[in-house]
Amino acid sequence: MTADRALALLRHAPIFQGAQPADLQPLAELGHFSSLSRGEHLFHAGQAVESLYVVALGSVRVYRLSRGGRRELTLHVEGPRQVVAGVAAFQSRAVYPAQAQALQTPTEVLGLPVDAVRQAVFQTPALAQAVIAYFARRQAELLGRLDSLVFSELGERLAAYLLEHAAAPHALPTNSELAALLGTVPELISRKLGEFYRLGLIVLERRTVQVCDAAELSRLAGGRQEEAGR
């Protein structure tokens, strides 16, 4: 039963997009599922990489700590079918470069032995092609995030985040988590959310937010691009 469920997850994981079920079956048979509670760590920075993790349920936040440990910067948040810190799994004698913790309860991940993953990918052209294409896409996404953190204002970043979750009422992370994700501090997140609320752009109740004026949020999120085009 575990192998069947693991295979179904791997077949829909973007990192293995285009691979044949027969190529994934040996990995699925070696997989194991683990459950995490909100705030529980999947791994810590500096820990040896022993598994490649694929999120089955919930979400996992990957983040870095400042040297003093007082500030956090969220690098990315991975939801169902996404790989957590996948690049590290393909480095020889690698250690995790960041921390990873569950953002909600329940969160469930599929762990695959990293040595078996490397061997399968290196020896199977279809898997290798899928993994290379996946990492190319992720690099472009991370560069886009870096560009956003460095060159855009907080209002733009927050508006863009809210638009990403505008399809339905969305349970916001804590202000600390949202600040780490958007590269700021909790006090500014609280202030900006309050501003959006007073302007009628969102409805916010008990950490659940609903977008009311997507057009205005879109204008705010696109402000930097509009200015660049002038």
Describe this structure in words.
This protein is an alpha+beta fold. The chain contains nine helices and eleven strands. The strands form three sheets. It has a four-stranded antiparallel sheet with strand order 1-8-3-6. The termini are far apart. InterPro entries: cNMP-bd_dom, cNMP-bd_dom_sf, Env_Response_Regulators, HTH_CRP, RmlC-like_jellyroll, WH-like_DNA-bd_sf, WH_DNA-bd_sf.
Architecture blueprint of SSEs:
Layout (H helix, E strand, L loop, with lengths): L1 H11 L8 H10 L1 E5 L4 E3 L7 E7 L2 E6 L6 E7 L4 E2 L14 E4 L4 E7 H10 L1 H27 L2 H11 L5 E2 L3 H8 L3 H13 L3 E4 L2 E4 L2 H8 L1 H6 L2
CATH architecture of the largest domain: Sandwich
What Rg, in angstroms, do the CA atoms define? 19 Å
H/E series: HHEEEEEEEEHHHEHHEEHH
- How many beta strands in the DSSP annotation? 11
The major beta sheet can be summarized as: 4 strands, antiparallel
Which strand order does the major sheet show? 1-8-3-6
CATH topology of the largest domain: Jelly Rolls
Helix content: 40-55%
Q: Shape, please?
A: elongated
How many discrete domains? 2
Instruction: Briefly note the structural class of the backbone.
Output: alpha+beta
CATH superfamily name of the largest domain? Jelly Rolls
Cα(first) to Cα(last) distance is 58 Å
